[in-house]
Amino acid sequence: MADVSTWDLAAIKRDLIVANRECSQRGLTHSTKWTAELMYALSDVKSSEIVQELTTSHSQDFLSEYDSYTLAKSFFDLREYERASFFLRECRHPKNYFLHIYSRYLAGEKKNSDDMADAIGSQEQLDNEHLKLLRSDLHKKHSTHTLDGYCMYIYGVVLKKLDLLKEAVDMFVQAIHKEPLHWGAWLELAALVTDKDMLSSLSLPDHWMRQFFMAHTNLELQLNEEGMKIYQTLKENGFHSSTYIQAQIAVACHNLRDVDQALDKFNELQKSDPYRLESMDIYSNLLYVKEMRTELAHLAHHCCEIDKYKVETCCVIGNYYSLRSQHEKAVLYFQRALKLNPHYLSAWTLMGHEFMEMKNTSAAIQAYRQAIEVNRRDYRAWYGLGQTYEILKMPFYCLYYYRQAQMLRPNDSRMIVALGESYEKLDKLQEAKKCFWKAHAIGDVEGMALVKLAKLYEKLDEEEQAAAAYTEYINEAIRTGAYSVEDQAHAYKYLANYHIKRMQLDEAYTAAQKCTEFIETKEEGKALLRQITRLRSLTDGSTLPMEDGTGSITADRVMPQTDANTPLNRLSPMNLNFTP
Question: How many helices (H) and strands (E) does the chain have?
Fold first, then answer.
């Protein structure tokens, strides 16, 4: 693939004009909008070839069927799909055949959606007859090599709906090779990529669209740094005003939990495209996390004024009510979003969170499972299932779901800590240790891993490692200012006993003195100080004053610097290879 900086922007704009026209004529509205957004970003690019492309007329064979196409397209735009399909049944031009097949597919899907409320049993078993008929017709055409790239795309969608995923991947790859300008085919393929190895093994055309696909798929696979790097390169090489790229960069910042940066990016996006609704539900998630009630209320009202019957609007309003702890109302809006689009991932996941807040675990499990059905790469749904089964005290289930979440987010400390807790409950303590250590090593966002690791060392009677972990936990707590009073009191008590055992009385005295500053360990701290005084009088006859300190915890009073040869010099790393 040629370097992005060497791209011919005029040729790319010419390609986008072709793709926009072809997708528009076939009723592929999302791909049409996507190409139009990129065309607008290249509005400064001019050439005679672009003008010529804009004035290109239709081919003669298409014009012979143009009346049927015009009639059918008008029905299609009004969502009268069966009528559109009927009037194109005799047409032979690839464009008309595509619209015929696409209308049949959408007619079946519309019927499924309308009947969903009345269906009893498995929806897949009840409603896939139209897909089987479409597959049969498309297979015959494909075997005679008469399908164009757009019809191959529909064939791939049908195979995907029938859960023939390997065949669907092959078909989407073929569709992309034949019609690389169709963004919809790239998106469908991205949804079937399960990991980085599969992505690198795909046989993709050497086309400029490949860079957009790689960036999008990296974000889907939670490879956010790689995705953001590609988007930044595209932005710096001609697409600086693309609102699509702006939105994707904001989403990448959100995925990386860089909340402030993500909020800045979404604010910039709103200035560039104030009536945009795509990705606004993600923006509302960020406002929810930051508890920015006023801004979230403003966003909800703004989205409602644009279109109150869009899924993004319903999710934004749902988040607004959730932040106000009106969870029943929040669920109502998430359900409304799902009536508009039953495959909208965010609504399923957010509704699961609301049911968890309402202590309705069975409904939460159902919502999270539906989210996974829509997209198996949604780590939030796997993590939510793990939390739900943790409430139900089913640790084996927890372990399975937390493992899935951790595989999707291997460097997210929250997933690793949750996995470690599950191992600990199942008495797989070595595995638990590895989890807590890794969470600490990669940067523990919640500050829990180190103290959990220390308690595990304590439980296993690994005294030196426990003391090292507790010491590091105390120093870390003082640096960040985030700590649990109960955990810190316990850490000082353990360290006081540890040093007394080794007759390191100065260090023991410092730790015991700190114990007296906490209500939980105040009396035990006084007892330890008396013990230290007795031991000191036995060893050298000197005594230290016993104080009943109540001062604040400061860095210079935590623990004295230990000798380089003592076990507290550093916490030892460990082998992270898990046993089967």
Answer: 32, 0
